[in-house]
Specification:
The complex is a heterodimer of chains A (125) and B (137). Chain A has one domain. Helices cover 84% and strands 0% of the residues of chain A. Chain A contains 6 helices and no strands. With 137 residues, chain B is mainly α. In chain B, 74% of the residues lie in helices and 0% in strands. The longest helix of chain B has 33 residues. The chains are: A mainly alpha (125), B mainly alpha (137). At the A-B interface, helix 1, helix 2, helix 5 and helix 6 of A face helix 3, helix 4 and helix 6 of B.
């Protein structure tokens, strides 16, 4: 039970924080307006020079391995609906830590997605 | 500053790229790993043989390349769009997965799953009508 709780925490929190780090990194790099391969490579190269990129990658990797661990001890029909919470946590994180303005409309959309993800996972079981 | 219609268009294009290549990447990776078979044991010889077979498989590399394409598109879209916009919008990949399961893999997709997919599409439609960027560049 404790292992499952720790793994669940690792899936949701570091996984989401890692993605937020990536968002922060790319906002620091700046809006990509030129999509020619050389220009894209230059932007990605700039991102890779930032510590937040590597922190983000590490946290996303921790979240991914926690997901694999969780799948080895719990049923898929439990794990995937449970991860739907990450959409709400991510949206809250975007508002609190990235300064994004999350309107009521966006919250409604996110909640619909959360319910949809739960139904899709239950439908696979 | 990029005008709103252009911003919406390039966000939509990259999200379509993301949700198209990620499920295909997963499918190729899954197919490749099934062709290779399960890892026999953790003994070094077996492990290295498994590792060698994995990374010399064309199917696995197609999967890895597609997932790399997804990751690049994901990073690019995050260079201007809100994380709280991209995160729910990218969940529309479940529609792609259901379509692949039904029409490519010929699996039976249960009605409950279609209801979930429809709900996700509605959620993405609602999120898609908000502005992709709410922070100053």
């Amino acid at each position: 039970m404790l292992t499952a709780a720790v793994l669940y925490f690792l899936i949701i929190i570091p996984g989401t924080c890692g993605e937020m780090c990536m968002s922060h990194t790319m906002k620091t790099v700046g809006e990509v307006t030129d999509f020619r391969p050389r220009s894209v490579a230059r932007s990605l190269g700039r991102a890779m020079k930032l510590p937040s990129f590597w922190i983000g990658i590490s946290m996303m990797a921790a979240g991914f391995f926690a997901l694999l661990g969780m799948l080895s001890i719990a049923k898929v029909s439990f794990v995937f609906p449970a991860t739907a919470l990450s959409y709400a946590v991510g949206t809250l994180g975007g508002r609190l830590f990235l300064g994004e303005r999350v309107t009521r409309q966006r919250w409604v959309g996110v909640l619909l997605v959360c319910v949809g993800v739960i139904l899709v996972a239950l439908g696979k079981g | 500053m990029t005008p709103a219609p252009t911003l919406h268009l390039k966000t939509a294009i990259l999200i379509v790229v993301m949700v198209s290549v990620a499920p295909l990447g997963d499918m190729f990776l899954g197919k490749g790993m099934k062709q290779i078979g399960p890892m026999p044991d953790w003994a070094p010889a077996g492990f290295f043989d498994f590792f060698f077979r994995t990374f010399t498989s064309e199917t696995v590399w197609i999967g890895i390349s597609l997932l790399l394409g997804f990751f690049i598109a994901y990073l690019l879209v995050l260079s201007w769009a809100d994380y709280s916009y991209v995160l729910p919008a990218s969940s529309i990949s479940t529609l792609m997965v259901a379509l692949l399961a039904r029409f490519v893999l010929h699996e039976t997709v249960r009605p409950l799953r279609w209801v979930g997919v429809a709900m996700i599409c509605l959620g993405v439609f609602v999120v898609g009508h908000t502005h992709p960027r709410t922070t100053e560049p």
